[in-house]
Every structure is written in C-alpha cells, then in structure tokens.
Amino acid sequence: MTATQAKALKGVRVLSLSLNLPGPAALMRCKAMGATCLKLEPPNGDPMRLHSAPAYAHMHEGIRTITADLKTAAGQKILQRELLKTDVLLTSFRPSALKKLGLAWKDLHKAYPQLNLVAIVGSPGELAEIPGLTETQPQGFLDLSHGDPFLGHSWSSFRVGEPGRIPRNGPVLR
How far is CA 65 from the centre of its chain? Predict the structure, then answer.
C-alpha cells in the first residue's frame, strides 16, 4: 500500500455491523487506509471469534468493538447514537434483515443524510436474500462455492486494472 493509499480514508468514520470474514476483511482495509473504525457486535459476538480466533484478532487489531442487541430498544439507541457520527455503515445483513431492523436504505438516508451504506451480500440483485459469503480479496471478491447448495450461493468476480485506468471484470473461476 502506498503512502497516499494509507491516507485515502483519513477523517472517515466507518461503523461495521458485519459478521464473519467478508466484513472484517473490508473493515481491516478501511483501517489500513486511515479510516476510524468501530465494530458493533451482537451480545454473543461475531461467529468468527469462535471459528477462527487468530484471524479475528488479526482483522480487528486496533478496531474498537462495542456490543449491542439491535433487536432491543436499548441496542437501537446505541446504534442511532453511533450513526450520527458515522460516514460509512458496513453491513453483511440481507436486505430483509436490514429492513426488519429499520435499517433499509431509504430510512437510513432520511435519518442520516451524511451516511453511505456498503452492503456485502452473497449474491447480487434478486438473489441478495439468499445467505452466502465470499472470501474478500483486495481486488474484489472470489467465490469458492460456485453455487454448491451446501456452501451457499455467492457471486464471483475479479476487478483488475492498472493505476489511472478503469478496472475491468476478469474471468469467473470454475
């Protein structure tokens, strides 16, 4: 990472509600690029703590974590307080889960006009409601399941390019 890249997000505050690998990987990149990062986890924590504690510790190094149950009024109050100070909300929830929590984009944008929403979903478009995870890569993301019903549905893509040129989609791996 260049010195310029390391400062690209300086002054930007990112709040992550994401769980498992893709969200923390994205949050780690935001921090490396100078963003101030905060992670809000459910009371039982991120499942990644149990399944891959070393990776969790690495990806969350220097990132403040708070706990709140977003299904309760107290948890919603904590979230609302943090959203007032947030520039980017990073989430890995399905659109219907966001809506159920009162976090649909139209509601968020109305209440927090400064907010940008980054939603990591397993599949694009109408498949976004199907749970699935991808392994996040620096240039894009890579699907290792290829729609295997036991591994979930995910989207495959590489974004490749040269500095100063528009990236293009690379091959889908099979």
Answer: 14
Cβ within 8 Å of residue 122, ≥6 positions away:
128, 130, 131, 132, 133, 134, 152, 153, 154, 155
Q: Using a cut of 0.85, tell me whether the model's pTM lies above it.
A: no
Domain ranges of the chain: 3-120, 132-174
How would you write the pLDDT of the chain (174 residues) with one tens digit per residue? 677 777 889 999 999 998 888 888 889 989 999 999 999 999 998 888 888 888 888 888 989 999 999 999 999 999 999 999 999 999 988 888 899 999 998 999 999 999 999 888 766 677 777 766 544 433 333 334 344 443 444 444 444 445 555 544 444 433
Enter the tokens of residue 111.
Answer: 């209440």
- Report the CATH number of the 3-120 domain: 3.40.50.10540
Number of neighbours of residue 72 by Cβ within 10 angstroms:
11
